[in-house]
Amino acid sequence: MKTVLLIREVYLEGFRNLGHFIVQKYFKAFAWFSFIMFFVVLYAFIFRVYTGFAFD
Question: Who has greater pLDDT, 37 or 54?
């Protein structure tokens, strides 16, 4: 739980006093898109390992 709170604090601190409203919203959307893409890749990798895909 402490790790989740630390990640949350880093996320909030990264967007504090960032600048223009549009730039702030763009970077927040890009961060969420990056998180989602990371979890999609992680899911695909775990699925391939679980089904016995041969990584040649």
Answer: 37
Above 90 in pLDDT, residue 22? no
Distance CA 5, CA 36 (A): 19
Domains contained in the chain, number? 1
Question: Residue 29 falls within a domain, yes or no?
Answer: yes
Q: Which of the 8 DSSP states describes residue 20?
A: S
**Per the domain annotation, does 36 fall within a domain?**
yes
Indicate whether 56 belongs to any domain.
no
C-alpha separations of 40 from 5, 13, 20, 28 in Å: 23, 26, 30, 19
Q: Which two tokens stand for residue 21?
A: 């409203």
pTM of the model: 0.60
